[in-house]
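Sat 14:20. Reprocessing the chain from the morning session after the first attempt stalled halfway. Input below, unchanged.
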Amino acid sequence: MSRAGIVIVTYNSEDEIGPCLAAAVATGAEVMVVDNASTDGTLARVRQSGVAVIANEVNRGFAAAVNQGIREIRADFILLLNPDAVLKTGIEPLCEACAIREVGVAGGKLVDSTGAVQAGFNIRRLPTPTVLAFEALLINRIWPRNPANWQYRCYGFNHDDPAKVEQPAGALLMFRREVWVELGGFDEQFYPVWFEDVDFCKRLRDHGYYGYYQPLTVAVHQGGHSIRKILLEKRQFYWYGSLLKYCFKHYQLGCARVICLAVIVGSLFRMVMGIAYQQSAKPLGIYGRVIRLSCRYLLYGPDKAGAS
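Finished this time. Tokens:
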């Protein structure tokens, strides 16, 4: 039995999953695919490969699917691999990093199709309230080199050398099974996607572990393939919903409420700009839902905010 297992969560990933699976199987690791109710040919492609698969009848969300996959495989080292990430090397360097007792998670080098490192995404610090408020208020987009965003996205990071890090990218993320058990798995409240990997890294740090970046393991990563298949109105609602869950879980109440206000103000700005640019009332519905959700979090907190 291989000491490493690879869990891949798919959602309408027919166009991407073939190369991903071929490279994953070539590592010799145990491979498990968990499909979240794809409506395209994803399941057929996976079954043709002979890889083990769990076919969910409904979309259970990324965190729940990851937990499902881990429970079904036997390996001690678990690698989460996005279906749009194709390994170009072996994964043994990540196993060696995770064998260090103090290491909670280890990530490899993610590059695009030209071989360029995906700077700003590959390695990040854990987000501060300032960073998330700036993100909501469009400050990071208008002024991407502001000090808070620069430090958060680790733009000065040397991607050629191994290093201790706070948050390796979830697209290529390894950890020990015992660490996953200690933390109680991924938090399935982050539904259907976003911030579940950030939350996992934050809880690891709170438990005394650190993250590790190991550039000897490399994968070509497209990025965002499943997210692009989510309707824009749902995409915004899900992203901000997960952001607010993270804030109320990990920040002091005052900071979390300030971020609620930032989301409301930023959404109003996006709504007005969207209506003017698109000459359509559609942004009113998209960002109206986000504003209502933020107001519920602001007034009632996460327990009564709901998801409708």
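The mean pLDDT is 95.
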